[in-house]
Amino acid sequence: MIGRDEQTTDQPKALREEVAQLRQALASHALIDQAIGVVITVSRLRPEQGWDVLKHISQHTNTKLREVARCLVEWPARGTLPDVIRGALPAAVEHARTRTGAAGREDDLEVRCGRPG
């Protein structure tokens, strides 16, 4: 059994760890929101569809969601995406469009997947 002194000593450490986790979650959330913005702008989707695109790419490429988000946020500045994400993006966009019943232009998607904007 943990004594009161041990709990008091462990509390600041636990609070520091929790603060670090919350900061990481906040940073990840902001990055994911930015990536959704890139996806919805480039693919002309609604925000909930952009979220679906990120999830679809992550799940179908076995890539962490925040890594997919980072790559998408950096895409406009770099002018390119990693091959695995670039390859998965059209299917993810199509999946999001058909899932929500939104019409999209295939030719527009083909042009935009190589370079943003």
Automatic annotation (TrEMBL):
Domain of life: Bacteria
Signal peptide from the UniProt entry: none
Domain spans labelled ANTAR: 12-73
InterPro entries membership: ANTAR (IPR005561), CheY-like_superfamily (IPR011006), WH-like_DNA-bd_sf (IPR036388)
Identification of the protein by name: ANTAR domain-containing protein
Organism whose genome encodes this protein: Streptomyces rameus
